[in-house]
């Protein structure tokens, strides 16, 4: 069963996934050292492990709910790490996605 405690797992997983993917982005697109791929790979491995800890009965449901949290976390990364403030469209879209994730996470199931 998916629980609200899964939100913490999802938030931590999102941070690790974004950090890992950004390491690849920095190497590939920004010319950073290939050494960035080492912590990036570790972060992506941690992301996968954390996501498997989500309290969902089915992987697909956990991944779907996680998607909304990932989108919101990506916009936080955009602002905090890349210095680009999200605009109203970003925020509105994120609210829709988090609402969808909440519906998946918190829906009563028998």
From TrEMBL:
One GO cellular component assignment for this chain's record is:
plasma membrane
| Sorted UniProt keywords | Cell membrane, Membrane, Transmembrane, Transmembrane helix
Q: Where are the transmembrane segments?
A: 33-51, 63-79, 91-108
Keyword field contains Transmembrane helix: yes
Localisation per UniProt entry: Cell membrane
Family the entry assigns: Belongs to the UPF0060 family.
UniProt protein name: Uncharacterized protein
Q: What's the source species for this entry?
A: Rubellimicrobium thermophilum DSM 16684
